[in-house]
Amino acid sequence: MFHAEKFIEKTASSLSEDITRKALIAFSGGVDSTVCAALVNKAIGDRLIAVHVNTGYMRKNESELVVQMMKELSLNYRYVDASQEYYAALKGVEDPERKRKIIGEKFIRIFEQVAREEHIDCLVQGTIAPDWIESGGGLRDTIKSHHNVGGLPQEMELRLVEPLRDLYKDEVRKVARALQLTVAERQPFPGPGLAIRIIGEATEERTRLVREACAIVEQEIERASQKGVMQLPWQYFAVLIPIKTVGVHGDKRAYGNTIAIRAVQSVDAMTCHYSTIPHEVLDAISTKITNTLKEKVNRIVYDVTNKPPGTVEWE
Amino acid sequence: MGIIGMVRIFVVDNGGQWTHREWRTLRDLEVETKIVPNTIRFQELQHEDVHGLVLSGGAPRIGLDGTLGNCAELLEKADIPILGICAGHQFIARFFGGDVAPSAIPEFGQVEVTILEDDVIFEGVPKKSVVWESHNDEVIRLPQECTRVAESENCLVQAMRHKKKPFYGLQFHPEVEHTQYGEQIFKNFISLCTE
Fold it and tell me: Among A236, A255, A264, A252, which Cα is nearest to A295's?
């Protein structure tokens, strides 16, 4: 069995041997990077600098929340708002692999900039097993290039340290609980963020739509689970499909985009079953999204694909 | 240092998405395990005093005509239990003279399998249970030296065993969380390795 306490002890001691100078951690505020930050903080204390990049593809109010978290964890931190840079870099890009690689490279260039200013030579990432497995390499096929593995540029100035490489999400959560981190139960959110929840070009306007839809899906599902109507899924969100269909809004023709509702049950992200969301909850989500996004979105669909054959995220 | 008497089962990596899950399942069951490349020589395994091997699945189509590294030598020389999964299973079938071909209906995700005869590998597993699949190809002709142990609606050889050697092949994936009795199947394989 996996023993969180033993893992913490062993990892903290090997990290303090491994990192002799300063280190930078890529901090998204998710379970993986937060656990990583706590472990490295345990090992090297204030020689660690956490960097949170707002890519412009974060969820509603997320970056503000992450800055708050870094303060609460008493981390030395830097907040970089690179939204406009990311939107510009992804202009005209539709291919999911290209999106992931552009985002991955941009992260590294930003971290390198901070590292030069702070005289840091080592980058800590919360990479976990599915990230490197799905990124492929050698005999293994590339399912998708995770930004922190397959999305890394060939030439990098920083040495990588990835203490969670052999862990799956359920094991990281065990470590988070043992470290008493409030983030332990937070649902996964991919590094490339909302950019891969928009099929096709991830423009600022489309990002606004999917961000709003994701917020509604999260809100309605969390409310339903608090009321005991359904179990909280492992992951739940919205995907923007920029395919237009016809509708009718107040006796007038409507011609807007489509939003898909995606929710899955999993333990380790390696296999997933789609979640069965009660119809009353689907109803509430559907009405709220179309009423909020008005002429932009007039159709909602529900994704009933398992993994395999699908993956959790659409890109 | 390992505990004396601990079972050692290595996972031979053929490039599957779930190779590391096989490692995890074995580790969770307190087995001493590690992932080794499929180019490993049998002699190297002998030096490590291994009690059993899992031949992992592999990237698309590798089971169809790939050589799967050095798996042939392992099958030729080993007398320890071997569990082939997906591409590993298909390779065992080809090695002993069976045929593998693209599936008429490939299976991905949830499938029901039916066990055809009692076998130690399925001890404690009901006749029908839910397993997870991910295959484009399948065994279409069983080698003479093997027996069919389980099937599904769209795939006749979901499980097979060698008639004389402790070798097993599974088309489905017992290592993933969603396979209902996956852990039980691994426990059964571990028992085989301790005999």
Answer: A255
Query: With an 8 Å Cβ cutoff, is A92 touching chain B?
Result: no
Q: Do A140 and B17 touch (CB under 8 A)?
A: yes
Active site members of B:
86, 173, 175
Question: Does residue A83 contact residue A110 with C-beta atoms inside 8 Å?
Answer: no
pTM (2 d.p.): 0.93
- Could you give the CA distance from residue A272 to residue B182 in angstroms, rounded to a whole number? 15
Count of alpha carbons within 13 angstroms of residue B164, beta-carbon side = 7
Selected residue of A1, A132, A140 to mutate for chain B interface (largest B Cβ count, 10 A): A140
Shortest Cα–Cα distance, B144 to chain A (Å): 30
Enumerate the residues of chain B whose CB falls inside 8 A of the CB of residue A166.
20
Tokens of B55: 């031949």
A266 and chain B: CB distance < 8 Å anywhere? yes
pLDDT digits 0-9 by tens, A99-133: 999 999 999 999 999 999 999 999 999 999 999 99
Give A-chain residues touching B15 at CB under 8 angstroms. Answer: 138-141
Q: What is the DSSP string of A119-135?
A: T--EEE----HHHHHHH
B9-194: which CATH topology? Rossmann fold (3.40.50)
From the list A8, A4, A54, A11, the residue with the least C-alpha distance to A29 is A54
Q: Give the pairing of strands B167-170 and B82-85.
A: parallel
- Our CA-based measurement puts residue B130 at a distance from the nearest CA of chain A, in whole angstroms, of 13
Instruction: Return d(Cα A55, Cα A204) in angstroms, integer.
Output: 11
Would the pLDDT of B1 be above 70? no
Q: What is the pLDDT of residues A227-246, one digit of tens each?
A: 999 999 999 999 999 999 99
Task: Read off φ and ψ for residue A159, nearest 5 degrees.
Answer: -85, 135
Q: Order of strands across the sheet with A159-161?
A: A76-81, A48-54, A23-26, A122-124, A159-161
CATH number 3.40.630.30 given to A4-185: no
Q: Does the CB of B103 have a partner CB in chain A at under 8 Å? A: no
- What's the token pair of residue A277? 């969301």
- Residue A242 contacts by C-beta under 8 Å, 6 or more apart in sequence? A198, A199, A200, A206, A257, A258
Q: CB B30 to CB A271 under 8 A? A: no
Residues of B in contact with A139 (CB under 8 A): 13-15, 38, 58-59, 62
Domain A198-302 has CATH 3.30.300.10: yes
pLDDT band at B62 (very low <50, low <70, confident <90, very high): low
ipTM: 0.91
Single-letter amino acid, residue B111: V
Q: Give the nearest partner residue to B59 out of A141, A266, A306, using CB atoms.
A: A141
